[in-house]
TrEMBL record:
Record-linked Pfam families: VWA (PF00092)
Location of the VWFA domain: 5-183
PROSITE patterns: VWFA
Superkingdom of the organism of origin: Bacteria
SUPFAM superfamilies according to UniProt: vWA-like (SSF53300)
InterPro entries referenced in this protein's UniProt entry, alphabetically: VWF_A, vWFA_dom_sf
Protein name: VWA domain-containing protein
Organism listed in the record: Streptomyces ficellus
Length: 221
């Protein structure tokens, strides 16, 4: 079996309280339903949810979404710290890929969706990010910035695509709903492109544009 692990790494800082967190928590059941009820998607993907603020925690270990009834909710609190999020993500990916391979699966390069609404408050997070992207199983990172997130930081975090919420386009709540819808579409579309015989590759065809977001160039800080 060919498996694509994907990770939602979401800022749970204090400024996410209210509409942003509520939007994600509202969207997660929709994402769960879309993936778990599509046999092709459920068979080909595994999902992990990581929340971070002052530290990082795995809210949902890597799982076939058809095997669980619901996803845990995010809860805001603390400051925006990136380093622990990148270190936790790397540890998860290394353990998850090792386990999947031990089960006899082929594993495609993991994909991480990194969502933040502010600037990192921790020193040295760039080193943790460097170790993540240069690791053997370093993921494709699609970064989304909302609220007070800085475009330069979001563009540095991403190594595949980066998006910023447009200031006057939509509210953070609406933007996050668009993000969740885009994520679901991308997985469904990508998985459904796999030949019926199971041959060929599987790579997440992420939207080049996301309603409510503008594209950010991938720049170094």
């Amino acid at each position: 079996m060919q498996i694509l692990p994907f990770y939602l790494v979401c800022d749970e800082s204090g400024s996410m309280n209210g509409a942003p967190i509520d939007s994600i928590n509202t969207a997660l059941p929709d994402l769960h339903h879309e993936i778990s009820t599509n046999p092709t998607v459920a068979d080909k993907t595994r999902f992990c949810l990581i929340g971070f603020s002052d530290d990082a925690k795995v809210l949902q270990p890597l799982v076939d979404l058809s095997d669980i009834d619901s996803l845990p909710a995010l809860a805001a609190g603390g400051l925006t710290s990136y380093g622990d999020a990148f270190r936790t993500l790397l540890r998860c990916i290394e353990a998850d890929v090792t386990a999947l391979k031990a089960e006899g699966h082929d594993v495609y390069r993991p994909v991480a969706f990194f969502l933040s609404d502010g600037s990192p408050t921790d020193d040295g997070w760039q080193q943790a990010h460097k170790e993540l992207v240069e690791a053997r199983y370093g993921p494709k990172i699609i970064a989304f910035g909302i609220g007070e997130a800085e475009a330069a930081t979001i563009g540095h975090v991403a190594n595949f695509r980066a998006f910023m919420q447009q200031d006057t386009s939509v509210s953070p709540a609406q933007a996050l709903r668009e993000f969740a819808a885009s994520l679901t579409r991308s997985i469904v579309r990508s998985a459904n492109s796999i030949p019926a015989d199971g041959g060929g590759g599987f790579d997440l065809a992420v939207d080049e544009t996301v309603p409510g977001f503008s594209t950010v160039s991938l720049d170094k800080l």
